[in-house]
Amino acid sequence: MARKAAKKDQNAVPGGFNYGILVEFFIFLALQGFDIYCNYGVYFESSKSLDIYDDYSAALLVSNDTQPRGGINLTVSPLGFCSSSTFNTKKTIELFEQYEQTLEIYFAFTIIATIIFCLHFLLWVITLAFSLMEADFLQENWELLVNGKIAFTLAANFVQDIPCSTIGIELYLLRRGTNGLICWQCSMDPKCTSVDYLETLLAPSSQALSLLIVAICLTTLWKAISSFFRWSRVDQCDVFIIRATTSLFAGFLYACIIMTPAMTILKYRYFTLPGVTAGFISDLIDKLFIIGALFWSVGILTVCCCPLLRLIRLAQ
């Protein structure tokens, strides 16, 4: 009886240089690089706004009323969501200082994010270089490389994406709203006499924040999908379709979890502001927020309860 030809293991870790790893490296550069770019985009836009507020802040030292010198009284001249704005000198100075401190915290997390990106980039370069020089490098170090990828993914999400998204939204909220810095700037600027001009003051920060949120969503989704796909490799059989579809589902859930803190702020603070229309995005956030909040609750309960249950078990 003729021997059956041995089937080639399609899930085995390939030897030598692998073009799939190279493609993943370029995707990492594109998405993670775009994420870092958006982080700095929010910082530089916020810093530019801070410089403008610095120029106007001198008037706070010589004005104690609600109508700044050289500006307009927004309670007399209604203007969009700033129509009922009144500005007390002491509270405005406190808001200005809070904005400056928040920006400094955001910059610190951006620097940490840059360091994580550089270290992750170095890991990729080492992986590609050694896979070119040593034929068995990927096979011998596959588990270590996958664990390193997962570690950098978690570090980037919990040290970069969650803080930067929430603090970035907070920077935006300090400017938006009836008594925000944008309305204060409008009251100081003689040119701010129309809703269109008011929107131009807010547009750069809105665009920078929108790009950041999109970048975080895309990057988190891809990192979760690719990490889970690499981690779920099975040498005994070819289950590519199962791994791929499961990775997509796991990536979606993980992205919801990472974006839950940002969605919380948007849901309870942004969409409640005057002049903000709660449309399709608000409804989508409401649904995704439930998913993310459920997993956060399960995770927190697990972290809190498991040590207690272990103590009970050991006590018995």
Structure description:
The protein has 316 residues and is mainly alpha-helical. 74% of the residues lie in helices and 0% in strands. Helix 2 (89-133) runs antiparallel to helix 3.
List the helices and strands and how they pair.
Elements: H1 19-57, H2 89-133, H3 137-175, H4 181-188, H5 195-231, H6 240-270, H7 280-315
Provide tags for this entry.
316 residues; mainly alpha; 74% helix; disordered N terminus
Count of distinct structural domains: 1
Distance between the termini: 61 Å
Number of helices: 7
Query: Average pLDDT, to the nearest integer?
Result: 80
DSSP, total strands: 0
* Broad shape: elongated
Q: Give the biggest beta sheet.
A: none
User: In percent, how much strand structure appears in the residues?
Assistant: under 5%
Order of helices and strands: HHHHHHH
Structural class: mainly alpha
User: Which radius of gyration do the C-alpha atoms yield?
Assistant: 25 Å
Amount of helix = over 70%
Q: Low-confidence runs (pLDDT<50, min 5 residues)?
A: 1-9, 66-70
